[in-house]
Specification:
Chain lengths: 325, 204
């Protein structure tokens, strides 16, 4: 029996080309037609070579740089570009109910250091009772790399990473890949690498952005749930919340959404593993038809019994509290 | 409205709302009873083990996280260590037919022999009924029930949520900690954790 024959996850095509793994080739073909033949041919060759990637279970991984070189005192961005076969997924920094995020171990030239991974907005994956947060098809993790002022001004810099990644569909396969690239060290400021411009532009569009300063968001804590109230100054038909930390909310529980004028209320069931009060609720709020926004909101405790709550969970919580008095 | 009428309405509302809230057993709750067929063919009832500590271990032989604990011998060591002290250990197989980790009784018996595993019994749960009663999310999720029939631990086997065999030595084992603390009459310091691993392959 092939356990992979009953996938529970759905694959959605996110690019203009049908297959995710074709996207770079499609974009390079489009580029070719717009450029002079000689230059186009060179680009095509360069792109085909770059698109090979290092094999991981059911996909490939490639380390790319946004710039052609590095220079002392400058920060450039690296990308870990995962391309997965249809139906397979990897995980967000908070993987949800199962799985684990990719783990990176960097090998950097002397004087270089990397910052935190920028995680694209994830997607809910899984079944009705087990929900994971992750990525299908094609995803790139962007990581800043800073070159110290003391770094050399010439030569070649080897940048590498050992990446441990769990790739899942109906079943999970752990993989490990060594990826690396060589960048010239120069004295002048790094210039962008045109070959990777599309890739980085696409990846940046997938990142959650900071919540607008005009938004008013509060989180109150009830016995079994968090109530997130938001005034955004506009109506939204639906939202989805992705908690940045594990074990705060029940990942598989429905998030009860109530539209309000200029905003909404969202009830999030607390995780059974949440044993201590949390100070803040952090995560990504995805508005329907829009992108993700990073929120980080202090949690206030409900002191009085709420009587005005219009949803089942809080109503029942409140009523239980009334009954206990 | 009279006070008694308000109270009556409240009671009705609560009675209607409560069934929606009944979630699977969590730490501090009475462990839900179940009856299951073991790989040996015997019927096992949880209620028959009241008075003993019971460990539930969710299993899927194709899951790399489970593989870490069996290929390193860690799970078998724990089974032997704790059953020798009177603890009852049930390995539970909640994979649905056709899914990864689903096995017949004889396949499971062969596996137990091959791996030199030593649970009290391996319980076949192809409908996922027991898994859902305990809201088991992953293999290898672990649950510890005390002699009074109360869930005192639910979550990960240890604090290293990886598939690497080299992470087994040096890990803090939450199951052993819960059993040691409870047996010493102390409260369990870490009663709930995120149960890492592969999702349980339930029937859809």
């Amino acid at each position: 029996m092939n356990p992979g024959s009953h996938p529970t996850t759905r694959s959605r095509s996110t690019g203009s080309c049908v297959k995710a793994d074709m996207r770079r080739r499609c974009s390079s073909l489009a580029l070719n037609s717009a450029l002079a033949l000689g230059a186009g041919l060179l680009l095509f060759v360069a792109n085909s070579k770059a698109a090979e990637g290092t094999p991981i279970p059911h996909g490939t991984l490639e380390l790319v740089a946004e710039n052609q070189s590095i220079a002392a005192g400058h920060t450039i961005h690296l990308g870990l570009h995962f391309q997965l076969e249809k139906g397979w997924h990897i995980y967000w920094v908070n993987p949800g109910d199962s799985g684990e995020p990719p783990r990176l171990k960097w090998r950097l030239p002397p004087g270089a250091s990397v910052g935190e991974v920028a995680w694209p907005t994830p997607r809910r994956l899984g079944t009705s009772t087990i929900v994971d947060f992750g990525y299908e098809d094609d995803v790139m993790l962007i990581v800043p790399m800073h070159a110290a002022a003391s770094m050399a001004t010439q030569g070649l810099a080897q940048v590498g990473a050992e990446v441990k990644v769990l790739v899942c569909r109906e079943m999970c396969i752990p993989g490990k890949a060594q990826v690396s690239l060589t960048l010239p060290v120069k004295s002048q400021a790094p210039v962008p690498d045109a070959r990777n411009a599309d890739l980085f532009a696409t990846a940046r569009k997938a990142l959650p952005r900071a919540a607008p300063a005009s938004w008013r968001i509060s989180v109150t804590e009830a016995k079994d749930s968090f109530l997130l109230s938001a005034n955004l100054g506009r109506n939204v038909p639906h939202v989805e919340f992705f908690p940045a930390a594990e074990s705060q909310i029940q990942d598989a529980a429905p998030q009860q959404f109530i539209a309000m004028a200029g905003g909404f209320r969202l009830t999030l069931r607390k995780s059974d593993q949440l044993l201590k009060p949390i100070e803040r609720l952090k995560g990504v709020l995805v508005l329907a038809g829009d992108r993700g926004y990073v929120i980080d909101v202090p949690v206030t405790k409900v002191v009085a019994v709420r009587r005005d709550v219009g949803d089942g969970i809080n109503l029942a919580d409140s009523l239980k509290e009334v009954m206990l008095k | 409205m009279k006070r008694s009428t308000v109270y009556r309405i409240l009671v009705v509302v609560v009675l209607c709302a409560v069934p929606l809230l009944i979630a699977a057993a969590k730490v501090g709750d009475a462990a839900p009873g179940f009856s299951a067929t073991a790989s040996t063919g015997k019927t096992v009832r949880l209620a028959d083990y009241r008075g003993k500590y019971v460990v539930l271990e969710w299993h899927n032989n194709g899951c790399p996280y489970v593989g870490k604990h069996y290929n390193s011998g860690n799970m078998q060591r724990l089974q032997k260590q704790w059953t020798a002290q009177g603890v009852v250990w049930f390995t539970i197989l909640s994979s649905a037919p056709g899914k990864q980790g689903y096995v017949t009784a004889s396949e499971e018996n062969n596996y137990l022999t091959k791996m030199q595993a030593a649970p009290t019994a391996a319980l076949l749960d192809p409908t996922g009924e027991i898994g859902h009663l305990y809201d088991a999310k992953t293999s290898p999720q672990m649950v510890v029930i005390n002699p009074q029939g109360v869930v005192i631990y639910s979550g990960a086997i240890d604090d290293r949520p990886t598939t690497d065999l080299q992470d087994v030595p040096g890990a803090t084992n939450y199951v052993s900690l819960a059993l040691e603390q409870a047996m010493a009459g102390k409260p369990v310091q870490t009663p709930a954790t995120r149960p890492y691993g592969c999702s349980v392959k339930y029937r859809e």
